[in-house]
């Protein structure tokens, strides 16, 4: 298997690093909402936001380091985040996950 490394332009590297910082800060703010959220739905939305941000951080890191492994990791995390959000939303609205 031949691996081709593509060099990213300098401005793209700067944009990716800025995106990593922004995603990290938003994750920290969402973490605060998970801890201090006044209601359970607020906490669920904050957890979903954290899951989405972790996926974005993995994708940005894959772009920055040019490693495809992190794309696979982000896909798995996205699937797990989606299923867990559906399960928690069902539990909050109906009180049971499986009928």
Automatic annotation (TrEMBL):
Cellular component, GO annotation: plasma membrane
Topological type in the membrane: Multi-pass membrane protein
An annotated Gene Ontology molecular function: sodium:proton antiporter activity
Keyword 4Fe-4S in annotation: no
Protein localization: Cell membrane
InterPro entries membership: MrpF/PhaF-like
Keywords of the record: Cell membrane, Membrane, Transmembrane, Transmembrane helix, Transport
Name of the featured protein: Multiple resistance and pH regulation protein F
Natural source organism: Halococcus hamelinensis 100A6
């Amino acid at each position: 298997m031949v691996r081709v490394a593509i060099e990213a332009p300098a401005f793209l590297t700067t944009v990716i690093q800025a995106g990593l910082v922004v995603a990290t800060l938003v994750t920290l703010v969402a973490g605060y909402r998970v801890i201090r959220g006044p209601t359970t739905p607020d906490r669920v939305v904050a957890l979903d936001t954290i899951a989405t941000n972790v996926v974005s951080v993995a994708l940005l890191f894959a772009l920055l380091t040019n490693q495809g492994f992190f794309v696979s990791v982000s896909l798995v995390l996205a699937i797990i985040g989606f299923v867990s959000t559906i399960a928690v939303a069902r539990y909050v609205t109906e009180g049971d996950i499986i009928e």
